[in-house]
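chain below, 335 aa
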Amino acid sequence: MRIAILLGCIAAMLLPASIHARQGAPIDPAVAHANALRSGPIDYREGWYGSGDTRLHYVEAGRGPLVILYHGFPSFWYSWYDQMELLKTRYRVVAVDGPGANLSGKPADLAPYRVAALARQLDGLARHLNGKRRFVLVGHDWGAALAFAYAQAYPQRLRGVAGVSAPPYNLFLDLVRTDQEQQARSAYMPMFHTLTLDTIRARGIAPQIFNASYQSLIASGALTEAEVALFRNVLSDPATIHGGMNWYRANVPPFGAISDADYWPERDLRLTVPALLIWGEEDRTFVPAFIDRFQAAVPTAAVVRVKGVNHWATMEANPATNRALLAFVDEVTAR
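prediction:
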């Protein structure tokens, strides 16, 4: 079965998008893989929002209250596959390819990547999908930073917000502004400012980033051979890596130059909607001290620490991560 799925995915990667469209099949081979692997009859469907170089590609499954999932870097919508399988029997779950990722547009200008622009775009997508009805927003990595920022700016639009493996955007800026250990852990971010698309191509940086990011998931067997092929295919594109780096270029100034004007929507971290933070205790991306600061700023938020889980909590197949997320979504949608 695994070999058949892998061969099918490779074949899908080799077919041009126009052939997929004529045959009525998904353009994204990851969607074909998800439908081949899925449990039960609920299928995965592709959608598009917007136009031009800011057009978003997304994948959805199920019906019911809306849950939007936003990935981090370097990744794409399929990183949420396990959670989509869990949620799709009760909810309409939509996983977004953020700007620069996979089949979404890859703007050359930094303006569309700024957190305020990303939040406006996200709100437009939610209204496109769900009208004025409230929804649940879940993010991982910089998708989590964005999700919490969106919740600050648009609290009336949400039933609840959950972040996995990352602090809110404003709290992160405070960390790299003041905490030397966090500056050391985030030292790759200033380097992103120096890398052009031509440099990424010439130095073969895309496969290096894939290998560095996904080595632990591959070694542990958390990803199947077919899934490794899907992620490698998406992340081998220098334009995708460059687009992902643009989020950092647009939103993370040199650490010594961060000013009050860089915070959005405001410097103080206040969340008035139900909130959840899921943190893998083996994660070394951010200093654990941020959790204390998060709880002090948002005492009503729930924090779930998952033992034995690293930064890729959504893909490490730990049941505790999915239980916490499902319980939170059930709770906030029942209110």
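The longest helix spans residues 115-130. DSSP finds 15 helices and eight strands in the chain.
thats it, cya
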